[in-house]
Structures are given as C-alpha cells and as structure tokens.
Write a structure and sequence with these properties.
This protein has one domain: Alpha/Beta hydrolase fold, catalytic domain (Rossmann fold, 3-Layer(aba) Sandwich), CATH 3.40.50.1820. The protein is built from ten helices and eight strands. Strands 1-2-4-3-5-6-7-8 form an eight-stranded mixed sheet, sandwiched between helices. Helix 2 crosses helix 3. The radius of gyration is 17 Å and the shape is globular. 46% of the residues are buried.
Length: 261
C-alpha cells in the first residue's frame, strides 16, 4: 500500500491530503480528531483495502494545512472539505468516517452537502450536551509547558501506546493552531448535532477506558435519525481506531456493505 501526499483547495485555505494510491478501490474519507493529523489513519487505512482507498486530509489549522486566524467550528471544516472533494473526487458520493471532532465535521458535511456523502460513521463523537473530551483543556495547557510535560501526560493517559506514540502525538498537538483548541474549549453551549438523512453508524468507545460518548446521549442521537444504528466496542479507548483497529474496520466495512447504494 502506498500513500500519496498532495494539496487541495479548501474554503480560502490549502489542505494537505494523504491518499492511498489504488486504481480500483473507491475512496473513503477519514477525518481526524482535534490536534492531530490525517497521518493517524495510516495503519487503519490498510485495513480498508481492497474495499476502499483512504483519503485522509489534515483539517485546517492542523498538520501541513493552512492555519487561518479563525474559522474552527465544525461547519467551517466541513466547507473546506466540500471544496476539497469537488476538486479531487471524480464520482461522489462517498462514505465518511470521522473521529471525535472529525465526527462532528462529518455530520456537518453530510448535512450541508448531501450530494457528496452517502454514509456516515462516527467514532466516539462528543455528542453529550455541554461535554467534550476531558483531555482537551489539559493538552491545550501542556502544549506550551516545558519540554517533556505533555509527553509524560500522554504516556500516563495511554501507557499501552508507549513512549514513541506519546512523542508523536505531542508533536502534532504542538503544531496545531491555538485557535482550533480554543474553538472547542469555548463551545460551552453546544448546538444540537444536525439530523442527517444518510445511513449513520455510531461506534462508542468504552467509558471505562476513556470513551466520551455515554449510552443515553448515543441513544438519543440515534433515535433522531431516520437511518442510524449504534454499537459499543468494549475495552476501546477514545481513539478506538487505534486501540481496536480490527473491530472498527470490520464494523465500518460491514456497515458500508449493508448500506451500499
């Protein structure tokens, strides 16, 4: 499997895009969470072949994409992605998988540009009213702490990931725009997630291992949608695509196959 790096237009920004090079497999859009980059999908993307070829952009303010001073709400990211997809995808619609912040962006993309999205998979989305990832304030603060403090915090939170992963995450978090973190921290009055019409799968992580989506909020969200289902992956961390990649990939592929248009 070979990944190709390129640049594509967003709404007034240029986005860095990683794509799996495959002449046959249809594309699937993978959206990362706050503070990291599309590179977090590299191992997971391999599990989707030969069924799908991953497209994994860096959201604005993240990684190698442009970082404007403002525009870090989910609809802003979604508008970027709509322009990007218009530029690089020959035959939409396509499935979209979003993790955490990326899940909120996936919903806005599916709602605002339904012609581009045919299915949605949400990985541990922050849908609880007034609640998000409790690690965000700590990471935001420690990004500007003396060297080593953020790495130590990340290693403590995820010892199974090891020192190398903690260092990789710390580099990505420090590179991300302050405004991206501040937008999430200031979302005290969270707007209700849009009601999308596309088939939607919600994959919950395990709250005992850092999952942020509770059963009540997940069920309330799913009940509002015309075509939605949910599943909890026991023992999965918030980054369930990394802690339980086989389970997540299997669920994504089965869902896409069962809802193929």
């Amino acid at each position: 499997m070979r990944w190709e790096d390129s640049s594509a237009p967003g709404r007034g920004v240029q986005l860095h895009v990683r794509r799996v090079v495959d002449p046959v497999a249809p594309p699937i859009l993978l959206l990362h969470g706050l503070g990291v980059t599309g590179s977090v999908w590299q191992a997971f993307g391999r599990r989707l072949l030969p069924h799908f070829a991953a497209v994994a952009p860096d959201l604005r303010g993240h990684g190698a994409s442009n970082a404007p001073p403002s525009g870090y709400e989910p609809p802003d990211y979604a508008a970027d992605l709509a322009e990007m997809l218009d530029a690089i995808i020959d035959e939409p619609p396509l499935p979209v998988v979003g993790h955490s912040l990326g899940a909120l962006v996936a919903l806005d993309l599916a709602y605002g540009w339904p012609e581009l999205v045919d299915r949605v998979v949400l990985l541990d989305p922050p849908l609880d009213p007034g609640m998000g990832n409790p690690e965000v304030p700590d990471v935001y603060r420690l990004r500007h702490a003396p060297p080593g403090e953020l790495e130590a915090y990340l290693l403590e939170r995820n010892p199974s990931g090891g020192k190398l992963l903690a260092e990789q995450l710390a580099r990505m978090f420090r590179q991300a725009a302050d405004a991206a973190f501040e937008a999430m921290l200031n979302r005290a009055d969270r707007a209700e997630a849009p009601t999308v019409k596309q088939p939607t799968l919600v994959l919950q992580a395990d709250p005992e291992y850092g999952g942020i989506l509770g059963d009540a909020a997940a069920e309330a969200f799913v009940s509002r949608l015309p075509q939605a289902e949910r599943r909890k992956i026991e023992g999965a961390t918030h980054s369930l695509y990394a802690s339980h990649p086989a389970d997540v990939a299997s669920a994504v592929l089965a869902f896409c196959a069962s809802n193929a248009s």
